[in-house]
């Protein structure tokens, strides 16, 4: 899974960071660093929570069609398909 970072939308709330500081890196002013984030499978739940917590929609979750199909067929994500 990948998180697409829309850097220009970031308002520096740090909500993403508070969910997963090891995934979402902020600059010294509290804004997300530019560049998409490749997320390891073990970190997907935390990364999803962090991305969805952004009130400015600066973080977009990008899953490949294969990943989506796997989740749909095997319901691998805790709490069901999202
Ligand atoms: S990406 Fe969103 S939640 Fe994270 S620091 Fe920027 S505005 Fe805040």
Q: Descriptors for this entry?
A:
82 residues; binds iron/sulfur cluster; alpha+beta
Please, could you describe this protein's structure?
With 82 residues, the chain is of the alpha+beta class. Helices cover 29% and strands 12% of the residues. The protein contains three helices and three strands, in the order E-H-E-H-E-H. It has helices at 15-19, 44-52, 65-74; strands at residues 2-5, 37-38, 59-62. A three-stranded antiparallel sheet has the order 2-1-3, with helices on one face. The protein is elongated, with a radius of gyration of 13 Å. The model has no long low-confidence stretch (mean pLDDT 90). The structure holds iron/sulfur cluster. The site of iron/sulfur cluster (SF4) has 14 residues, from helix 1.
SSE blueprint and pairings:
Layout: E1 2-5, H1 15-19, E2 37-38, H2 44-52, E3 59-62, H3 65-74
Antiparallel strand pairs: 1-2, 1-3
Bound molecules: iron/sulfur cluster.
Iron/sulfur cluster binds at residues 10-16, 24, 26, 32, 54, 56, 58-59.
| Strand runs, count | 3
Tally of contiguous helical segments: 3
How much of the sequence is in beta strands? Answer: 5-15%
What is bound: which ligands? iron/sulfur cluster
Structural class, from secondary structure content? Answer: alpha+beta
Overall shape? elongated
**Rounded average pLDDT:** 90
- What does the radius of gyration come to? 13 Å
How far from one another are the termini? Answer: 13 Å
User: Tell me about the biggest sheet?
Assistant: 3 strands, antiparallel
State the helicity in percent bands: 25-40%
Biggest sheet, spatial arrangement of strands: 2-1-3
Q: List segments where confidence is low: pLDDT < 50 over at least 5 consecutive residues.
A: none
Write the element-wise H/E pattern from the N-terminal end onward: EHEHEH
